[in-house]
Amino acid sequence: MDINLSTYLRTVPDENGYYGEYGGVYLPDELRPAFQEIAEAYQAICHSAQFISELRRIRRQFQGRPTPVYHCERLSRLIGPCQLYLKREDLNHTGAHKLNHCMGEGLLAKYMGKKKLIAETGAGQHGVALATAAAFFGLECEVHMGAVDIAKQAPNVTRMKMLGAKVIEVTEGNATLKEAVDSAFRSYLQSYKTSIYCIGSVVGPHPFPLMVRDFQMCVGSEAREQFMEMTGLLPDAICACVGGGSNSIGFFTPFLADPIEIFGVEPLGKGTKPGQHAASITYGKKGVLHGFESYLLQDEKGEPLPAYSVASGLDYPGVGPEHAYLHDLGRVKYDTVTDEEAIEAFFKLSRYEGIIPALESAHAVAYGMKLARQRKSGAILINCSGRGDKDVDYVAEHYGFGEKYL
Ligand SMILES: *Cc1c(COP(=O)(O)O)cnc(C)c1O
After folding, report:
1. Given its phi and psi angles, is residue 95 left (phi above 0), alpha (psi -120 to 50 degrees) or beta?
2. What pTM, to 2 d.p., does this model score?
3. Average pLDDT, the chain
């Protein structure tokens, strides 16, 4: 199937935010005008030369972009002859790709004259990236977080507060991400004249899947150019981990028209039974959650199933609508990696390359290693979405220092 990239970017999603049959806006009537306002503002502002050049300056001077592409020579010698390369989003300011869209959302808020950024966070990574953007732009930041998550993710709560964000503890229901989303929506409904909702991945109602993809595309555009400059060729395959799907869609999009294989890696956790994984495309069905339509992990009644992965940034029971679309088109292949395989990759990359990846990113590394083992030649480019400093205590406690994996 051939894709022309500029046609694709002009036509996907359509004006109502649909990627084929996925996406859209599924919201109570009272919330629709707020998201409509964001969609209209984004369409108007995103093409302005001033917005684009200001975002470029931020990328360069504040975030430290472009992040490099790195050839993993020792790991390739271990696993090769196929060669492994990493796009180093772990070197982006704050240590992961999430800041790419948070800075875009913050800049949009500034152009729209908003005073406050509102969001929910699960593990706290989105909250920290957004609090960073708010501090940079001099905006208020209100992050809704379940009480259970607050207890589990103390360092991220501290970081958010240090950056000046207000963390709202949500105690209803299971007191985790779902309740935090509901609480953030309620707060937004009351204050949307002066604030903006900032979603943390390519999920939620239109225009977020589009906007977050656009803001993350710097990852793939840089990587494509850097890889060609290093090797004179395109990679044979690329891969990235898929939670909501923001780092992967930003990485994949600039390569969509190229004659290469593209793989999205979903977390298989502890196994294939409901509750053991978060592989929404591989095991999900079409449904609506958090304001958009896509593949979701759900029971017979359509209620969302609990999602699990050792990587807390991947344990979401849905996936961005564009991934559902690219899956059905057959342009991107989606496959899975277990906790155990991700842990092995975490230790291998740490010991052979001196790069401790985030557990999320370790899923992509594990898949790249799996592909390399099957091939006699060629090159695989993996998106390393973030660094693993946040994960080292957990990994050491549960898996030691990796003797059995090396
Ligand atoms: C949040 C996170 C992810 C998962 O989010 P996507 O939207 O799927 O990219 C992946 N890697 C890291 C390091 C993260 O913090």
Report:
1. left
2. 0.97
3. 96
